[in-house]
Amino acid sequence: MMRDSNCGYCQGGELLAKFGIKICDLDVSQLILFKEQSKPGRCIVAYKDHVSEIVDISDEERNRFFADVTRAARAIHQAFSPDKLNYGAYGDTGCHLHMHLVPKYRDQDEWGGVFQMNPDKKYLTETAYAEMIEKIRECL
Fold first, then answer.
1. HEC per residue, the chain
2. How many domains does the chain have?
């Protein structure tokens, strides 16, 4: 497995804790709860290896990665009933293949527009994060 010592997805621990909490391992990726929860249920699916681009993995691995994204998306829909789920694949500075799954709700801000990467508006208690994680796990 390829790892990067400066990558939160690769290293976990304090690097990951700056922005997320690992929920579980999926087939070829890990599911992470994004700590900033202004969009309830926002998660990240991060590929198991430190690769930058979707073209850096085989077709089979890409299909498995998107199956993981789909599994996570279904769980988010079931757990939080968003009106829409937005998908974002970025990585200009943190070049680790990952996808943001961002639930959007008609009655909240940013409906009809692109979501902010890190609006820095809403953080939860450890108990609330744990409850949210358990809800997602039950729906996987």
1. CCCCCCCHHHHCHHHHHCCEEEEEECCCEEEEEECCCCCCCCEEEEECCCCCCHHHCCHHHHHHHHHHHHHHHHHHHHHHCCCEEEEECCCCCCCCCEEEEEEECCCCCCCCCCCCCCCCCCCCCHHHHHHHHHHHHHHC
2. 1
